[in-house]
Fold this protein.
Amino acid sequence: MEKNKDANKPKKLVGLQRRKAKAGYLFISPFIIGFLMFMVKPLFQSFYMSFCEVELGAGNFNQIFNGIENLKYCFTVDPEFNRLLVEEITRMMIYSIAIIVFSFFVSLILNQKFKGRALVRAIFFLPVILSSGVILGLETDNQLMATLAAQVEETTSNISVTAALENVLRTSGVGVRAFEKVFEIIDNIYDVAIASGIQIIIFLSGLQTIPSSMYEAASIEGCTKWESLWKITFPMISSMFLVNWIYTVIDFCMRSDNEVIKKIQVVMIDQMKYGRASAMSWVYFLVILAFIGVTSFLISKEVYYYD
Amino acid sequence: MTNVKENTKAIEKAEKKAAKKSARKDFWERNRLSGGYLLQKKVTEVVLSICRFILLFGMCFLILQPIFNKISVSFMTEKDLFNPIVINIPEHFTTDNYKMASTLMDYPKALRNSIIISLSIAFLQIAMCTLVGYGFARFKFPLKKFWFACAILIILIPPQTIASSLHLHFRFFDFLGIIKLITGDTINLRGSKLPYYMMSAGCMGLKNGLYIYMIRQYFRNIPGDLEEAAYVDGCGMLKTFFRIMLPEAKPILTSCFLFAFVWQWTDGFYAKMFLGGTQLVSTSLSRIVDSLGAYIQRISGIKTTVSIAYSNCILATGTLMIIMPLIILYLFAQRAFVESISSSGIKM
């Protein structure tokens, strides 16, 4: 705060522009300092470390450069890493798509006028608060619920609609694997629902910016509701799809029930292999960055900006 | 006077009733005139709203059910858990689970620690993020785009990537070699709370990039005339910020503060890394099953395994106990949580 005060002192022979620029730098200086100290330095260090063998000694630590030994270890020696990485990425992709679709339709429903809308909105937002951090991880390995669910499934397997539908579709033999993924999502709809709180709100905020005159004009021209959904609503909030997609992917790859992250933590904290842990997390980070980059490039080509 | 008022009220009522009646009568008349279109429209409307109700009810139930389930389980005795007849309403009502979970988590102490840490961290983070967000939103300076890209980058980098080197960074902490120069050795900051406060002061805490982004977005939407008027009237930059802009941004600041508080409350990653020595509700909850085993072993003196059902019951109780403050907070500040995000106008 002390620094900011200096910005107020009028300096002679300096334009307002320059003063403002200085003030701007002072305002963001906490970020710059923090970024340099706690982000850039550790980032480079961990990048370097991923090519090193780190030895913890008494009162110091040594880094011994060993080239791509750690990376080699990750991909060829470690029995789990490849599998976990591929599994997590596919899971992330499928769930992110499911979350986007789910939250889009829920927000369409919530955007309509009906009684108790505020209550429903509050309930949908509840998981953002309640299923964060440690609670999410505990939720997923809650064995009591799992056994209960298994029991319910066992007793009702004959009358379950989804199971019957699954059987019909499976015997038809079209795209079996794709169907299986869809069924997996339907079975885990709870996971999708609790992960889509923020996305619903973002979509809702987008929906509310669409002027109602557009819909009126369309309906006078003889446009049905279905058509106006695809011709008006969809393009108008397409930029929200990009925002939501990036948010969802990031949110997913930082969740505490993520297997890759669990693995990294085990390697780092329990086995004390700092080098290997860094290599693994860098691989993970780069894969995710590439994934976000490619997908958001593809989505941004479709985004329509209305001004 | 009162008489006249009553009279007008009565007349209004009567008019409304008449209007309703005529509307009802009119309906069929109008329907006939429209060639059945009105009836069709009305029916679709009703059917749609019923479908909507069923859909929303189902989804709301889906979200709330685990909480209800936890509440009912938390009042059951161990006997009830194994009784197949008991599903939702416990047969032997008990509050022992709460006492058990409370002792296992050291609840009063953990709660106090959590409140202190979450409040102070949230306050620090939001104060810093507000300054930075304001700087990004309202000033033009060289390299602004670059720094903003960095702010976006810290949203993207998973903290796990730099976790290992941060670990070492704080194990052998030094600031530009100054400390080593003075004391001859680096400081071991692991296990103390200081590193996390320092990171929060540098906007590098949990999800701080997101807060910066949201606050910046909000400040950008405030009309610039307001600020210019203040400058013209002789208000300095800092004064403008505190007197004009901050009060305008109250909604987004409240909600960011609430988010920071809640996410800090449930966070396990940073808590495990930096605040390992302090007992927090989040860390003690994640250890509760293990400590239950240890506790029973200590009492009975024999190595026994706790039944899955009972340990999950305690886990459910513990979870309820740590989310209870959050639920109460949410009940009161629900609007602040939900509305602000929609008002911040997030766009790319």
